[in-house]
Amino acid sequence: MSLKDTVAAWDGKSVKAIAEIYDVNKTDLTFGSRLIRSLGDPECERGITWLIKHHLELGWLPQSTDETSAVLNALPHTTHWEARLHVLQCLPYLTIPLDQVKPVQGHLQNAILDDAKFVRAWAYHGLHVLASQHPDFQETAGDILKKARETEAAASAKVKIRHALKALGID
């Protein structure tokens, strides 16, 4: 059974089961690249994005800027909120290429309008990540975060906004 088929067969709930898929595949040197190639399929996007996030958390790095860009560009194409959340949670582990700043900014600005509060929270954190890696974006990120501080209702998002503003040195 292919990786995509294995992930598509996952029940979408069991962390133990998705972690077992990870454990079976983690030593394969092509695992990260195979995950990247599997992005974009709604049947397995929650599992694939979780596996990518987990792989990054454990130290894997994309092998090329094309792979990084594929993860970054997955955000507007994911259909399930958990998949969007996983992509956003990948941002701190990725080096955002200069040519991706504008697209990522647009994706983040769309994500801060998401119905899912955790997606919004991590989108605010993503603004901080983008501004930290690309200082030319700090003023724009600061303006967005300051406005959000006044309008965002979800406590989880407010915490991310507060931390992002503090990390950027903005009151």
UniProtKB/TrEMBL annotation:
Protein name: HEAT repeat domain-containing protein
